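Residues and backbone
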Amino acid sequence: MTIWKSFPQPIQRPAYRSLADLIATAIKNGELNVGEKLPPHRELAYQLNISVQTVSRAYDLLIRRGMISGQVGRGTYVNSKPVETDAPYLSASLGESLVDFSNLKPVSGHIHLDKMRNALTDLSETLPPSAVFSFRPANALRPYQAAAASWLEQCGVVCSPDRVVLTNGSSSAMTTAFMSVIDGSAIVVTDGVCHHPLIRLSRYMDFDIQGLATDQEGIIPEALELACRNKEIKILFLLPNGLNPMAHVMGLERRRRLVSIAQAHDLLIIENDAWGPLQPRRLPPVAALAPERTFYFTSFTKCLMPGLRQGYLVAPEHLAPVAANRHLAIDWMATPLVAEIAAKWIEDGTADQLIDWQKSALARRNALAQDALSSVPFNSSPNGLHIWMPLPDGWSEEVFIEAARQRGVVVAPGSAFALPGIKVEPGIRICLGNTGEDQFIFGLEQLAAICQNPPGPYTDIF
C-alpha cells in the first residue's frame, strides 16, 4: 500500500511535522480519499526510509487535527471531514430541563447580580476618561496593574505591577503564554487526563502535547524525568490546585521535585491557577518556586463570577516583553471597563467579600456531595468546583451517561479529557456550581441511585 505515486521530496525538519503536513495536503488535494486506509506505521517508515517513531508522531498529530482516525485492530483511515474535539459540557441547544453538572462554573446568587449592578451604576459617575478614550493598552490599563499585583500577591505570586499582563480571562492568558514560547518543534507535557481547552489549543496552534502518568498529586516526577530523557520536551503545563479534571491537589514536595526536573532539563512551565485564592491553606504556587521559568495566570471567572472576565498573566522576567507583545496580537488589550470594576473591587474589599462567599458556598456544595454520594468513591479538593467519580465496576461512560440523561442529569465523560495514548478508567466529572441547590441535591441523588444498579440496556435500568 502506498500513499503517493511519486513521493513529494524532501521531508523537512522536524520530520514528523513535515510528514503530517504532506499527508494533510494529500487529503485536501484529493490524493487521499475519505475512508481510505493509510499504511501501517512500519510499512510507511520502510517506504520513506524514516523511523517508525516519526510516522507514529505524524499520525498522532493528524489525529489531533481531526484529519485521520485510528481504529483499534483495523488501522488508520482518512476522516470524512476534520472533527472538533467534543466539548465535555452540555450544549445550550438542549434546553434547560436537565440538571447540568457538565459546566464548570462558580456558585452564583443574588449578591453577584447586586454587586455588578451597583458597580455599573457607580461607573456612570466615576468612569475615568482613559477607560473610554485610550487606544493604547499602556495608557488604558496601567492604572489597574497595581491592584492586579495586589491580587496576585494574595495568590502567592509577588511581582512588580509592570510585569502583569491584563487579559480577558484565563483562556486569553493561556493562549498568550503558549504563543510566547511555542515553536514548530515544541513538545508540551501535562497530566494524561488534562485541561480540555489545552487539547483544543494544541490543535489550533499545531503543537505536540503528550500526557504523563499521574497519581493522587498529579504528574509523577519519574514520568516527567523519563519523558525529558527520551524526547525534546520544552514546556510543562501544570494545574496544581485541584483544577485538573481528576481534582488532584499537588503537595509541596511534589511541586519542588517537578521544579527541580524542569530546572535540570531547562523546561518552561505554564501554571494555570484559575481558581486563585479559592482553596484554603494554599501552598506556594509553582511560579513562586521557579519564577525564572514559569508563566502563571489566574482570573476572576471561576472564583468570583463568570461575567467578570478579567485575568492576570505573569511571565518570567526575560519573557515579559514577549508576552505583552503576543497579547497585543491576540486581543490588543483587556476590556478597560471590566478592568476598572475588577480593580475597584480589589481595592474596596468587594473581591475579598465575594471570595469568602464563594468559599462558603463551595464548602457547602462539597459537603452535600459527600453526603449524597457517601457510598460512591470519588476525588475532590477543598472548595473545589468539581469532583471526579470513577464509575462502578461494569459501567462504561456511554451507558452511565445515557442512564443519567434519562434521569434528567448531564455529566462530563472522563474520556473527553484524556490525551491520545492515555488509558483512563471510566469516570465522570461532576461540576458543583452550575445549578440551584435543590437541583443540585436532586441530581446527586439520581447519580447515587444509578450507581446502586447494575449496568444494562437503558430500558432495563428504570
In short: The two ends are 50 Å apart (CA to CA). Residues 156 and 284 are 6 Å apart (CA to CA). The longest helix spans residues 350-372. The longest strand covers residues 233-238.
